[in-house]
């Protein structure tokens, strides 16, 4: 155990970090590894590869993810901003690179290969984009002469254009909601609210008109006609699991679910471990959102407040979309369950998001003490003025 009286980076970190929130993230990584044994062997069998192929690859990303989670939580808010700026520049460059040299899968060009692994730059773009926009909004709030809002709008346009070029409609919606929420929290005028809401509706209509796969998914969701095999199978797996599940390794419907290890791992969890286990997962993600927003509400610094809220929303919205698709409450969209689903890029990106979040939510006793001293120092002067 680290003593409170010790001084040093490790001691300061241990006593200022939100240890409950960190423990929750570590638990999610552990649950993801456990569920990889349930969800991925069937996919590997259909591909005629080693049954534990995806389990082994999933395990390879656990320690790098934990390293990022813990390492980034040591950063100061200024270091978080600088790290996010570098990550944003790298992600945008790689997304442009992917359009020319990446490979296409399922109708989208989102990945490129490096050292035998596929990398999805858009996953790393999200936390960096949110942090930089939070900084731009806060700078405009602090000094209205700085066109921070304008730069944030331009950056948003660049990011949306890159996501649409892949195309990745789900990530576009996720980023748009998170960015719009930050803009609203930053005190957006009603003119911008109406204008951006109209643009959002226009984007949705354009996506429906331009991208056949988007229109097809929405039509299938609304009418129930067409190829609904995957969502129907996912629903059947949830129903078959009942409250307590069929037991580890006893699921059968998961074996015919194409994306059981990624986009529909929630359904696999329901079939093998039951609805009660899935409710626990929902409670965990709800706790993360409430805990993060609680930190944001208590934060006095505008940048930190907006960044915490934005990062929390990224995790909460992504989990909500994944679960909503599995329950047929939302149109089918490839979206991983944070730290649970298979996918190296997703795991590492969520670990970065969580690491930034932990860094920004660390307690700062010296800052609070300085604030209290200032209040007490100014109190006699205010009393004399009164």
Total beta-strand segments: 3
Query: Which class best fits the helix and strand makeup?
Result: mainly alpha
Strand order of the largest sheet: 1-2-3
Strand content is under 5%
> How much is the radius of gyration in Å?
22 Å
Number of helices: 16
Structure description:
This protein has 386 residues and is mainly alpha-helical. It has helices at residues 9-16, 19-46, 53-60, 62-72, 77-101, 121-142, 148-165, 169-185, 190-210, 212-223, 229-241, 265-273, 275-298, 302-326, 344-360, 365-385; strands at 103-105, 108-114, 117-119. Strands 1-2-3 form a 3-stranded antiparallel beta sheet, with helices on one face. Strand 1 and strand 2 (108-114) form a beta hairpin. Helix 11 (229-241) packs parallel to helix 12 (265-273). Residues 365-386 have low confidence and may be disordered.
